[in-house]
Design brief:
Length: 477
């Protein structure tokens, strides 16, 4: 219990101190910013596939049905790096940044159909800085500045349960001696076989607490000290709960047997995730000021007006994700996975009490289509070296963001790769995870901006050694 309390305290401190990265992207000025791609570091390497992902030693907070697939408790830590170049057709601006991407804990008792999880991840990010100039008269010029920062975070608590779609064979408890021993062994053999050849269904529920704020600052600044500058600073904050339900179905398509043992098999995976739409509670603050800009310093002269904690709502539309995959288990534990996923979230009917402050002009239907392939050359029992036990991933995605400017919807295209490498010194199933994607966003047509970006994530999935579990139920008072 002390370890569990320590982890809960760590998550609580993280939630309280969580900050968004200061990304630099003009498209983040609309709505609540750029939406983070769902999924963990393994998902990044497979084209953003998160709903149908299947790894019993990694935590997936983006389909609650996955928690019951965990083989044991896992602590997952991930960091994210960003490198991008923005081109407006005349000049190029480069940016580098990073942030904490995920801290999560999955709780699973060996043999139990239940799984639990909690964690914190970013939901959206805002970061932009726009400047334009004008002329008042021959001696006075004016700068119009608009910059924003912040974003929305997601704290999740979830539960999952798996169901056996078969009945255990009957066991004869009237036998005694050698007959009882042989009967018990035969019963266990049949039961274990049914576990391997029968379909499995898992369902789950996430309680997502969205919190954070979007800050926007607009300035009119003169180069002449005879004129006072104007600054309007607004902040829209969100704090409310969204529910999310998930489903994962797993069944064998073809099995090859060798002396009553499965030699190889092909399995079908189907998954769905549904996040409910809701009107979230939000507040709005705004401050108008007059200031004097001189010697590269801003001195506030007067406060023109102030709005304090005006209450309102912010509508998050429902999100639907559908995924399918084929998993092939071969000789010596070789594992292939082929997965595809489609995700949609319609923002065209978006409404907010503070739409003007969020810079909402017109939002579009968000759509995501991803493909991924995963390969583990050999299982841990048959591998001769570290690289044979390492999992390799490649993927691609096409994402229509919800941002529309000049009647053009901003599109992202990216290719990705990643690995999961066992940490041999841990004597457990702990892994080092790495994922990277390269892509483009936007266009130069219609006076817009094109972005080339590289996103990468580095993380750890830490599991206990089976002889030294982290959480042990007390047997005696």
């Amino acid at each position: 219990m002390k370890k569990l309390s320590l982890v809960i305290a760590l998550l609580s401190v993280t939630v309280g101190a969580w900050t968004q990265s200061s990304i630099s992207n003009v498209y983040s000025r609309l709505g609540i910013g750029l939406l983070e791609q769902p999924g963990n570091v393994n998902s990044l390497g497979m084209g953003g596939i998160s709903t149908v992902s299947f790894d019993n030693n990694a935590l997936n907070l983006f389909n609650p049905a996955s928690y019951s697939h965990l083989s044991r408790t896992v602590l997952q830590l991930t960091g994210k790096g960003i490198q991008s170049s923005l081109n407006n057709g005349e000049s190029t601006t480069r940016y580098r940044g990073g942030q904490i991407q995920e801290i999560g804990l999955g709780l699973k008792k060996t043999g139990s159909p239940w799984g639990f999880a909690m964690g914190v991840t970013p939901y959206s990010a805002v970061g932009f800085n726009l400047t334009s100039t004008g002329v008042v008269n021959d001696s006075t010029t004016v700068k119009y500045k608009n910059d924003g920062s912040g974003g929305i975070n997601r704290f999740v608590v979830g539960v999952s349960r798996s169901f056996k779609l078969y009945k255990n064979p009957s066991q004869d408890t009237t036998l005694r001696g050698t007959a009882r021993f042989n009967s018990d062994n035969r019963w266990k053999e049949i039961k274990d076989s049914l576990e391997l050849v029968s379909p499995k269904l898992s369902v789950g529920l996430n309680i997502n607490y969205l919190f954070g704020s979007v800050r926007n600052e607009r300035k009119v600044e003169y180069n002449n000290t005879r004129y006072f500058g104007t600054r309007i600073t607004s902040r829209t904050s969100i704090s409310d709960v969204l529910l999310e339900a998930g489903l994962h179905y797993y069944m064998p398509l073809q099995l090859t047997w060798d002396q009553k043992k499965i030699k190889s098999g092909t399995y079908l995976m189907l998954a769905a995730d549904y996040m409910m739409g809701s009107d979230l509670n939000s507040t709005f603050d705004e401050l108008g000021e007059l200031y004097l800009y001189a010697n590269a310093r801003e001195t506030v002269v007067d406060t023109s007006y102030q709005i304090l904690e005006q209450s309102g709502t912010f509508a998050i539309p429902q999100r639907i994700s559908l995924g399918a995959g084929i998993m092939r288990v071969g000789t010596e534990g070789r594992l292939w996975q082929y997965s595809a996923e489609y995700r949609v979230q319609d923002w065209t009917s978006f409404e907010s009490t503070f739409s003007d402050a969020l810079g909402v002009e017109s939002l579009s239907k968000y759509q995501h289509l991803g493909f991924g392939i995963e390969l583990t050359p050999k299982g841990s029992e048959n591998a001769n070296n570290l690289f044979e036990r390492t999992t390799y991933r490649i993927g691609a995605r096409n994402t229509d963001t919800y941002v529309t400017l000049n009647e053009t919807q901003i599109n992202q295209r990216a290719i990705s790769a990643g690995i999961s490498m066992p940490i041999l010194a841990s004597r457990s199933s702990s892994k080092f995870n790495f994922g990277i994607e390269y892509g483009t966003s936007g266009t130069l047509e219609g006076d817009l901006i094109k972005e080339n970006f590289v996103n990468f994530q580095i993380g750890l999935s830490l599991t206990p050694y089976f002889l030294n579990p982290w959480f042990v139920q007390r047997q005696y008072d």
